[in-house]
Amino acid sequence: MNAPARIPGANRTLTDELIERRSNAFSRGMSPGQPVFASKAKNSELWDVEGRRYIDFGGGIAVLNTGHRHPKVMKRVYDQLERYTHTCLMVTPYEPAVQLAEKLNEIAPMSGPKKTMLVTTGAEAVENAIKIARAATGRSDVVVFSGAFHGRTLLAMAMTGKVVPYKTKFGPFPPGIWRVPYPIEHKGFSVDDTFDALQWLFKTDADPKAVAAIVVEPVQGEGGFYVAPPQFLRRLRELCDEHGILLIADEIQTGFGRTGKWFAMEHFGVEPDLVTTAKSLAGGFPLAAVVGKAAIMDAPEPGGLGGTYAGNPVACAAALGVVEAFETENLLEKSLKQGELITKRLRSIRRRRQGRPIGDIRGLGGMTAFELVTEHGGGEPDAAAAKALSADCLERGLMILTCGVFGETVRLLAPLTIQPKVMKEGLDILEEALLNPKG
Ligand SMILES: Cc1ncc(COP(=O)(O)O)c(C=O)c1O
User: Fold this and answer.
1) How far is ligand 1, taken at its centre, from the CA of residue 251, in Å?
2) How far is the C-alpha of 19 from the C-alpha of 29, rounded, in Å?
3) Candidate from 252, 290, 413 with most ligand 1 atoms within 8 A of CB, to mutate
4) pLDDT digits 0-9 by tens, 31-54
5) Is residue 10 over pLDDT 80?
């Protein structure tokens, strides 16, 4: 990678200067991110202010299934910018939002009549799903899972199942949030363990008749890309039906085509009552949605849902561009192919038992991840190795993200639109950094 340019007359780079200004200007609560300041980006490539090029396998945390500035997204955005950028959906509505809601109702993973509500961020979608579930059931409580990530606002944070850094110093948390283990066989939690814990919970702490919803990620995202065992989701559906509890699928990370279906729940043949989506929904513009069975979605009183920027017209136009890209470029199928390609490559690297030891490799379609462990063939998580790998890859021109309750997991979220030669280049860098580590 080229050496960055020095600032004329100073012994440091523009990046050094921006790091210092950023750290002075921002709360330290906002993670500093990587030492790369973006200058421009296109599809799967990003250039920083020094002119260095990176291949982006992180997608700004799972937002870029259609890549940076997809032409179909940008065309709709530019057209929309020429017309109006804000009127407030609840004051002066507009067609792009209606068209998007109709499309979401068509593709959401449940049968029967459906309705949508739009907001701006994933956490807002989660919070609104809970409001809707409470209004529909007349109940208050919520059951969630260890390792879950549902957002950073107060209720969504309380629902999140990872303490550091998301919950540290931020308590007390709202009452009525109950947690049981997510079934992860190789971490010692079976599906039966989860259901035993639920039965205990319903006997000892939470009256199931007070539970409005169980919220589940069909593949845990921040928690480590753990794919739900199909029988876990099937049994959850049965349990919800038995007790009149709503099943909410949080598909903010798994949704919008990442796993090779519009929504990951489709892989399991289990219908949730409500689904949340955000991130890749609008290809880089802030937009989120709750979609669900019409009777449930209509439970809140008029005016009870919304927000000043809810369903911003530019973001809705972008989302329609994302839908068009998926439908005309075979992106769902490309997700499945991407998953197969990456998994095969990672398995062959692991077989060599050289360099940084790889543990479990997992995923669903193009939502893939692998663990770094302390020794070849072992299972002890190695968060330091995952962090070092990420820094090493960055140095070599590839952006990857870590995740996982133990910080040992590396997730790979290349755009589904990535050109094969760039994908190969990215995987070659990853392989080199795994087999011949620097740093
Ligand atoms: C499953 C899930 N739910 C909710 C959220 C919160 O979304 P946002 O950061 O847009 O508020 C995230 C973000 O990573 C997520 O992965």
Assistant:
1) 9
2) 15
3) 252
4) 989 999 999 999 999 999 999 999
5) no
